[in-house]
Every structure is written in structure tokens, then in C-alpha cells.
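Quick one, T. Sequence first:
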Amino acid sequence: MRSPRLRNDPRQYHELAGEWWRPDGPFAILHWLAEARARLVPPATVPGAVLVDVGCGAGLLAPHLSAHGYHHVGVDLTMSALEQAASHGVTPVAGDAASIPLATGSAHVVVAGEILEHVPDLPAAVAEVCRVLRPGGLLVLDTLNDTALCRVLAVHVAERMPRAPRGIHDPALFVDPDRLTRLCAAHGVRLEVRGIRPSVPAVAGWLAGRRPRPGRRRILPVATTAVLYQGRGRKDR
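C-alpha cells:
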């Protein structure tokens, strides 16, 4: 008998390799979050500016930043995802978020979208994303909060939806924003956070199997960070 797969097993992303770029597939919300994340990234101000996309997956951020002027470097553990990212203009780098194989201070922008709630060693991952960021550089992230409400919605509700992947999250790894802010501050990044949520029409359309209409924002700001939140901060040293 095969032993049951643990939650947060990264092999799931390889098994779902064919689903990454389906806008109405199981990774639809990752498309919405990538679009929202890109809105926090300004255009590059110098030629050859480097943006490091930690946990890049198949490069869903790339289309939203293609005109921003960055050399887009993607770091991920899943080789099938990196191959797809490369086909969308991302320079692929195989690596772990807790041990990024890039030089210190090499990035003008570091993006860590929907990755921190998957790493077993949060302090190490935060130290790494801050290490590769140059002084004055920008950190952009989004993740799931370590609250009872988030655990119910992200695991017990979301994973029971008919179009959602199962076992994708381990709620023990969800990230408290106060802790994250302190960890970033210890490495010179002053992080500010705000709550976000998917729009109700977007979720309803996804469940119904409808393709999203272009031009509509599918991730909206909310007053609470209790479930899903974004962070943005500059490195001051």
C-alpha cells in the first residue's frame, strides 16, 4: 500500500504541471494573485535591473511585468514549472527559498508570492529573500495568515471546492504578519502589510468553469489581514 501523502508535498506541483496556465483551472487564484502582486512592482528605473521571483512556479507573474524593464529571474524547486517559466521569458534557477543560489544584494526587487506559507523554516527563507535584495530594493510578497479563520477557509473550505487541488497547504506553516514584519525588520526591510481577498464574482465564475473577463480585478483590498495579505517594504541597509 502507498503511504498517504503529507500536506504541502512539493511533488504535487509536478503532477499538476499541465494546469499552471489554465486561467480557469485549479491554479486560477494564483493567476489573480500574480496580477495583484504585479501592481505593487514599479517599472525598473535603471537598465538591467534584476527582479528575483522566489517560488516562481510556471512564471505566472511574467506577463504582468513584461513591460516593466526587469531581468526576471525565477527560483523554484519544481523543474517542470521552471521549464514553463523559461518559455515565458523568465531566467530559471533551481533552488530552495531557504537557500537561494544567488549573490547577496543582486536583486533590485524580490517577489515572494504564495511561497512563505509553504516553507518549513520561515526565518531562513526571510533571511534569504532579504539577503539577495540590495539596499534600497523592494520586497513584495503575499501569504496566508496563521489564524483559525484562515485555516478553516484555506483548508477546510477551499480544498473541498470541486475545482481546487487537495492537500496543497499545511496550516502549521501559515504566517503571522507581526512575526513576518519582525523577521523582515531584523534584516533591514520595513514591511507594511494589508489584507486582500478574491472577489466574489471571480470565485463564482471559477466554480462555474467560466473564463475570467479581462480588465476586471479579481483580488481586492480588505480591512483585515486575518486570511490573506500582501506585504511591501524597502531595504534600508
